[in-house]
Amino acid sequence: MLTFFMNRLPRNKVAQGAVLSVINVPRSALEMPTIEKQEATSEEVEMPWNVVVHNDPVNLMSYVTMVFERVFGYPRERAEKHMLEVHHHGRSILWSGLRERAELYVQQLHGYLLLATVEKVG
Amino acid sequence: MEICRQNEALEIRELDPFLAELLRQIPESAQPKDSPAAEERLFSPPAALEEKVLCAEWKLYVVPELRRLFQSATETVRADLQQLRCTDKPFANCTLRIPMAHADAWLSALNQARLAIAATYQFSEHELCDHYRSPLGSRRDLSLFQVNFYGFLQEFILREMEGNA
C-alpha cells in the first residue's frame, strides 16, 4: 500500500540534480542515462480532487449513512444529506482536496463496498 | 424466526432449515468464483478509465488488500455459521448467536454477498424494491429473496450497532 502512495508523489527535479553533484566522478566518464521526465506541474499538484460516491441500488441507505459518518467523521445530518444526494441525483461529492488524501478516502470507501471514484476538479 | 439482542450478541432464534441454509450460503455467495460481473462490482475502478496509471496501480496494490479484507470478514462469518451444523436433528429449527464484536464482519460479508448476487443476476432497481414479489419459482427468484433477506439482517445489525454507540 505504501508503494502505491509513494509512486503517486510528484517527481522532484532538484533531488535528481543533488545526486549528480554529490558523486565525485568526472561527467565525461559517465554514460549519461536517458532520464524520462514525468513531472507534475505545481498547478497539477495543487489542483483539488473530488471524492465522488455513485448510486447503486443494492447498498442500504442506513449503511451508506453509517459509512459516511465513519470514513469522513461527518455528523449524522451531513452524512444523511450526502446519502440522499447519492440516492436522488446518482452521485455526491463527499470531499475535495489533495489527490493522495482523496485516493485514500476512495480506498476506504471501497473497503465498505461503495461505488466511489476520484475526479479532477474542473 | 426471531431476532433479538442478548447482552453482547445478536441471537437469531427459531431459524427454520430453509433460512439456515440461506445463511450458510453467505460465504460462498460473497466470493463467487465464476462471475466476472460480481468481480467487477466488488473491485470497481477508483477513477474514470482514462486515468490509466491510477487504475493499473490500484489493481496491483489496492485490490489484493481489499480481497484480504473481504476474505477476513467472510472467514469470521463462516466460523460463526459453524453453529448451524445441526447433526442430530437436521430439520429442526436452530439458533445462531452472533457476537457484537463480529458485527462489522457480518455487515461486510452480507454486503459482499448482496452485491455479488445482484451483479450476477443483474437485478434492476425495480426488482430490488419489489418486496411483495413471490413465490419463489426460479433460481433467480430465490437469489432475489436471498438479497432481500440479507438486507433485512444488515438493517437489524445496523440498528443494534447504533443502539450500542
What does this protein structure show overall?
The complex is a heterodimer of chains A (122) and B (165). Chain A is of the alpha+beta class and 122 residues long. Chain A has two domains: 2-40, no CATH class; 44-120, Ribosomal Protein L30, Chain: A (2-Layer Sandwich). Chain A is 49% helix and 16% strand. Chain A contains six helices and three strands. Chain A has a three-stranded antiparallel sheet. Chain B has one domain. In chain B, strand 1 and strand 2 form a beta hairpin. Chain B is mainly alpha-helical. Classes of the chains: A alpha+beta (122), B mainly alpha (165). At the A-B interface, helix 1, helix 4, helix 6 and strand 3 of A face helix 4, helix 5, helix 6 and helix 7 of B.
Fold topology:
The complex is a heterodimer of chains A (122) and B (165).
Chain A: H1 2-7, H2 13-22, H3 42-46, E1 49-54, H4 61-72, H5 76-89, E2 91-97, H6 99-111, E3 115-120
Antiparallel strand pairs in A: 1-2, 1-3
Chain B: E1 2-6, E2 9-15, H1 17-24, H2 26-30, H3 36-42, H4 52-80, E3 94-99, H5 103-121, H6 125-129, H7 139-164
Antiparallel strand pairs in B: 1-2, 2-3
Helix pairs in contact in B: 3-5, 4-5, 5-7
Structural class of chain B: mainly alpha
Just name the CATH architecture of the largest domain in chain A: 2-Layer Sandwich
N-C termini distance of chain A: 28 Å
Q: Main β-sheet of chain A: number of strands, strand sense, barrel status?
A: 3 strands, antiparallel
- Walk across the major sheet of chain B and give the strand order: 1-2-3
